[in-house]
Protein backbone atom coordinates (compact mmCIF):
# COMPACT_ATOMS: atom_id res chain seq x y z
CA UNK A 1 0.00 0.00 0.00
CA UNK A 2 1.29 3.44 -0.89
CA UNK A 3 2.50 5.74 1.83
CA UNK A 4 2.05 8.94 -0.18
CA UNK A 5 -1.29 10.68 0.05
CA UNK A 6 -0.61 12.43 -3.25
CA UNK A 7 0.82 9.55 -5.26
CA UNK A 8 -1.84 6.93 -4.62
CA UNK A 9 -5.43 7.95 -3.88
CA UNK A 10 -6.27 4.71 -2.11
CA UNK A 11 -3.46 5.52 0.34
CA UNK A 12 -5.75 8.13 1.89
CA UNK A 13 -8.44 5.60 2.63
CA UNK A 14 -5.87 3.07 3.81
CA UNK A 15 -4.37 5.67 6.17
CA UNK A 16 -7.84 6.45 7.52
CA UNK A 17 -8.64 2.77 8.09
CA UNK A 18 -5.26 2.21 9.75
CA UNK A 19 -5.86 5.20 12.05
CA UNK A 20 -9.21 3.80 13.14
CA UNK A 21 -7.64 0.37 13.87
CA UNK A 22 -4.72 1.88 15.80
CA UNK A 23 -7.07 3.98 17.91
CA UNK A 24 -8.72 0.74 19.05
CA UNK A 25 -5.39 -0.94 19.85
CA UNK A 26 -3.72 2.07 21.48
CA UNK A 27 -6.48 3.90 23.30
CA UNK A 28 -4.36 6.46 25.17
CA UNK A 29 -0.96 8.10 25.21
CA UNK A 30 1.00 10.22 22.71
CA UNK A 31 0.66 7.77 19.80
CA UNK A 32 -3.11 7.58 20.24
CA UNK A 33 -3.29 11.38 20.41
CA UNK A 34 -1.26 11.70 17.20
CA UNK A 35 -3.49 9.17 15.43
CA UNK A 36 -6.65 10.98 16.54
CA UNK A 37 -5.15 14.32 15.49
CA UNK A 38 -4.30 12.94 12.04
CA UNK A 39 -7.74 11.44 11.56
CA UNK A 40 -9.43 14.61 12.78
CA UNK A 41 -7.37 16.55 10.24
CA UNK A 42 -8.39 14.24 7.37
CA UNK A 43 -12.11 14.64 8.07
CA UNK A 44 -12.09 18.40 8.77
CA UNK A 45 -13.59 20.17 5.71
CA UNK A 46 -12.09 23.50 6.85
CA UNK A 47 -8.58 22.03 6.47
CA UNK A 48 -8.90 19.28 3.86
CA UNK A 49 -10.60 19.10 0.51
CA UNK A 50 -9.95 16.11 -1.70
CA UNK A 51 -9.69 16.48 -5.44
CA UNK A 52 -10.03 13.42 -7.66
CA UNK A 53 -8.42 13.63 -11.09
CA UNK A 54 -9.41 10.99 -13.62
CA UNK A 55 -9.37 10.24 -17.32
CA UNK A 56 -12.56 9.91 -19.41
CA UNK A 57 -12.24 6.13 -19.82
CA UNK A 58 -14.15 3.25 -18.27
CA UNK A 59 -11.56 1.92 -15.80
CA UNK A 60 -10.27 5.26 -14.46
CA UNK A 61 -13.85 6.49 -14.00
CA UNK A 62 -14.79 3.27 -12.16
CA UNK A 63 -11.79 3.76 -9.88
CA UNK A 64 -12.72 7.41 -9.28
CA UNK A 65 -16.27 6.43 -8.34
CA UNK A 66 -14.94 3.73 -5.99
CA UNK A 67 -12.50 6.21 -4.44
CA UNK A 68 -15.28 8.77 -3.91
CA UNK A 69 -17.32 6.09 -2.11
CA UNK A 70 -14.36 5.28 0.14
CA UNK A 71 -13.80 8.95 0.90
CA UNK A 72 -17.48 9.35 1.79
CA UNK A 73 -17.43 6.22 3.97
CA UNK A 74 -14.54 7.67 5.99
CA UNK A 75 -16.00 11.18 5.99
CA UNK A 76 -13.03 12.63 4.08
CA UNK A 77 -14.35 15.69 2.23
CA UNK A 78 -14.45 15.50 -1.55
CA UNK A 79 -14.71 18.94 -3.15
CA UNK A 80 -14.28 18.39 -6.87
CA UNK A 81 -13.62 15.87 -9.63
CA UNK A 82 -11.42 16.83 -12.58
CA UNK A 83 -11.77 14.89 -15.82
CA UNK A 84 -8.47 15.35 -17.62
CA UNK A 85 -7.57 14.89 -21.32
CA UNK A 86 -11.15 15.03 -22.58
CA UNK A 87 -11.12 14.88 -26.39
CA UNK A 88 -12.64 17.84 -28.20
CA UNK A 89 -15.94 17.00 -29.91
CA UNK A 90 -16.41 19.38 -32.86
CA UNK A 91 -19.66 17.79 -34.08
CA UNK A 92 -23.26 18.77 -33.42
CA UNK A 93 -26.07 16.17 -33.35
CA UNK A 94 -26.78 16.42 -37.08
CA UNK A 95 -23.13 15.99 -37.99
CA UNK A 96 -22.82 13.01 -35.63
CA UNK A 97 -25.83 11.37 -37.29
CA UNK A 98 -24.19 11.86 -40.69
CA UNK A 99 -20.93 10.39 -39.38
CA UNK A 100 -22.78 7.40 -37.91
CA UNK A 101 -24.34 6.66 -41.31
CA UNK A 102 -20.99 7.10 -43.06
CA UNK A 103 -19.14 4.83 -40.66
CA UNK A 104 -21.88 2.19 -40.87
CA UNK A 105 -21.46 2.14 -44.66
CA UNK A 106 -17.64 2.28 -44.52
CA UNK A 107 -16.37 0.69 -41.26
CA UNK A 108 -12.70 1.36 -42.10
CA UNK A 109 -13.23 5.13 -42.14
CA UNK A 110 -10.17 7.19 -41.22
CA UNK A 111 -10.76 8.79 -37.81
CA UNK A 112 -13.10 6.12 -36.42
CA UNK A 113 -10.84 5.58 -33.39
CA UNK A 114 -11.06 9.28 -32.56
CA UNK A 115 -14.86 9.18 -32.80
CA UNK A 116 -14.91 6.12 -30.53
CA UNK A 117 -12.69 7.94 -28.02
CA UNK A 118 -15.05 10.93 -28.07
CA UNK A 119 -18.00 8.58 -27.46
CA UNK A 120 -16.23 6.79 -24.59
CA UNK A 121 -15.42 10.15 -23.02
CA UNK A 122 -19.06 11.26 -23.29
CA UNK A 123 -20.27 8.03 -21.61
CA UNK A 124 -17.61 8.26 -18.89
CA UNK A 125 -18.45 11.87 -18.08
CA UNK A 126 -22.13 10.90 -17.92
CA UNK A 127 -21.30 8.18 -15.39
CA UNK A 128 -19.42 10.68 -13.26
CA UNK A 129 -22.24 13.22 -13.46
CA UNK A 130 -24.75 10.68 -12.17
CA UNK A 131 -22.41 9.24 -9.51
CA UNK A 132 -20.79 12.33 -7.99
CA UNK A 133 -22.37 14.94 -5.77
CA UNK A 134 -19.55 17.46 -6.28
CA UNK A 135 -18.73 19.70 -9.26
CA UNK A 136 -16.94 18.23 -12.28
CA UNK A 137 -14.20 20.15 -14.08
CA UNK A 138 -13.76 19.12 -17.70
CA UNK A 139 -10.22 19.68 -19.01
CA UNK A 140 -9.88 19.38 -22.78
CA UNK A 141 -6.99 17.40 -24.19
CA UNK A 142 -4.13 19.79 -24.94
CA UNK A 143 -1.20 18.83 -27.16
CA UNK A 144 1.44 21.03 -25.57
CA UNK A 145 4.25 20.51 -23.10
CA UNK A 146 6.44 22.46 -20.72
CA UNK A 147 5.53 26.04 -19.75
CA UNK A 148 3.02 26.37 -22.62
CA UNK A 149 1.06 23.40 -21.24
CA UNK A 150 0.96 24.95 -17.76
CA UNK A 151 -0.22 28.28 -19.18
CA UNK A 152 -2.95 26.63 -21.29
CA UNK A 153 -4.21 24.47 -18.42
CA UNK A 154 -4.31 27.50 -16.11
CA UNK A 155 -6.27 29.37 -18.77
CA UNK A 156 -8.73 26.48 -19.16
CA UNK A 157 -9.22 26.28 -15.39
CA UNK A 158 -9.87 30.01 -15.13
CA UNK A 159 -12.47 29.80 -17.93
CA UNK A 160 -14.12 26.82 -16.21
CA UNK A 161 -14.27 28.68 -12.87
CA UNK A 162 -15.79 31.75 -14.54
CA UNK A 163 -18.81 29.68 -15.68
What does this molecule look like?
- Helix 3 links the parallel strand 1 and strand 2.
- The two termini are 38 Å apart.
- Helix 3 runs parallel beside helix 5.
- The chain has a single domain, classed as P-loop containing nucleotide triphosphate hydrolases (Rossmann fold, 3-Layer(aba) Sandwich).
- It has 163 residues and is mostly helical.
- It contains 6 helices and 3 strands, in the order H-H-E-H-E-H-H-E-H.
- 59% of the residues lie in helices and 12% in strands.
- Strands 1-2-3 form a 3-stranded parallel beta sheet, sandwiched between helices.
Give descriptors for this structure.
6 helices; 163 residues; mainly alpha; disordered N terminus; single chain; 3 strands; Rossmann fold
Question: What does this entry show, briefly?
Answer:
The protein has 163 residues and is mainly α. It has a single domain (43-162), classed as P-loop containing nucleotide triphosphate hydrolases (Rossmann fold, 3-Layer(aba) Sandwich). Helix content is 59%, strand content 12%.
Amino acid sequence: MASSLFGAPFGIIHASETSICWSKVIASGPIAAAVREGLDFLIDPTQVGTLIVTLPETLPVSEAIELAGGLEKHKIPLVRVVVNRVPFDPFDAEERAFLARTVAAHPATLGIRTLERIDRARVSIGRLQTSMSVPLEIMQDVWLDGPRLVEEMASLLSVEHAR
